[in-house]
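Reply to dn_fold:

You asked what the input looked like. This is it:
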Amino acid sequence: MEIKNKKKMPNNIKFIITVCIMILVMTIPFFLVVGYSVGLGRQFDNTYIAAMADKHNRLEDTDEPKIVLVGGSNLPFGIDSAMIEREIGMEVVNFGLYAALGTKTNMDLSKANINECDIVILVPELNQQTYSTYIDGEIMLQALDSKRNMIWDIPANDWLVMANSYPEYLKDKKEFSSTEKPDPDNVYARSSFNEYGDIDYPRPYNVMADMYDSSSMINIDKNIISSGFVEYVNDYVSYAERRDAKVFLSFPPVNESAIAEECTPEGRLEFYDHARQSFDAEVISNVEDYIMHEDYFYDSNYHLNDSGVVARTAMLIGDIKRELRITTPTDISIPDGSGAEPSDDDTEGSEADNELALDFVMELINDKYVVEGLSAQGKSKKSVRIPATFNSKPVYKIAHSAFANEKVIEQLTIPESVEVLENELFNGASKLVKVILNVDKASDALFPEVNMNGLLLTGASDNLKIYVPKNKLNDITIDYFWAAYSSRIVSQ
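and this is what came back:
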């Protein structure tokens, strides 16, 4: 009897089937996780980051020629878009939000909605991160929580960054879903933005303890501009020009008191010349013009108070008019900087506070005390508590590296009076695992000033956790400045 040979499946078909099975096996868990995440609801809907959805909607819905402002938080905290609209005669979309999101991401999200005769003005903050192609996957995911179809405006090669950030994002969503989702009632909330994308929240004064943020000094130097960012911007400019749109480059407001010592006028000129030579976008502003007095700032070295917004917007209008050859006069009255809020401090000290102070080395600066480090007595203790006052004067700041390389301390308690935490406080303090932050203030109070790039915990123990009151956990986890430390923050 003749036995017929069975036909063998061709190797190329086997390979294709194998690949398809592998892709299916790998993607099913991913889609299950995404489905679970969606089922948890929109937990970030009321946060500051959620405002990106509203900005994106305005950008999509504005068909007529418009001015699109792209950059970090210097834009929502520093522009009166209605004023620009009146003076220039074009619709305005303030597409700035958060420097930590990455300038590249803001550019990507704006790109699909650039139309004929549009003007895009790029205004990154002045540091290496914003003048690079850096992106933050977790913050991107939080933004997408309120408008998921924005993902199609993000390049596919950035999806991997988001995928890597998904576990931490999912962890936060799950925690919020089991309590109450974040619903801030201060300036850092979705509700604080107006229809243009500007922050519309009263901020009459400079609220920084020193009138500037000493943890985020600014060095305007040509070396902050990465070659990759130059290439990305120039590709963006080319794309806009193919759509008959224009791209300009301007500069953010800079608190003159926060200019680093190494930042010289010569260095700033080199930066300005390098920007003009490197970018295909026309540079319409002079960086020196945007170095402003501290009286115009609010809660960071780039965020303006109400009077600062008017002064900065007037300057930008002048730059735009000069570039577009608009000769109509600009009738804007520039207010004086409003400065610091008048103090009604009637601090009363106590013997208990003076006793606690013996554990620290402190320096009196401008009638307030700064913690410089541990005293000989404090160095021998495992647990120390910073006093709120000393000699009837407030203790308001912990200086750079104050507890660096301390090998005994395990627990530190920080009182509500402390307004500033400088960088690298616990660098090399290998046994310090518990920092108790007493921030049980009124809901609209600001948390202590910290560097938003995570430098507070540089060199700290991997086991260090920051303990806050349970009723403040959600607020501080999504705080504009403190979000960088969210994985370390737990409730008391």
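The radius of gyration is 26 Å.
Hope that clears it up.
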